[in-house]
Design goal:
The protein is an all-alpha fold and about 70 residues long. The chain is built from two helices and no strands. The longest helix has about 50 residues.
Length: about 70
């Protein structure tokens, strides 16, 4: 009977750990998705800036030059 109780306790602890890791993985996946979206938007913005030849750094702005 004691062995059965220990097995149930071990399974309960493993399940709790699994659920914790699963929740952490889902949060990280959501954050990765957000970062991918931000990267995509920044890449599009950079391409648009390059296409319109808008100065993209301080030196270009200071000199008043365009690329």
């Amino acid at each position: 009977m004691a062995i059965l109780a220990l097995c149930c306790l071990a399974m309960s602890l493993m399940n709790e750990r699994y659920m914790s890791l699963k929740e952490e993985a889902l949060e990280k996946a959501e954050r990765l998705h957000e970062l991918n979206d931000a990267h995509r938007l920044l890449t599009l913005r950079l391409k648009a800036m390059e296409a319109s030849q808008v100065p993209t750094n301080f030196e270009d702005l200071k000199e008043g030059s365009t690329r």
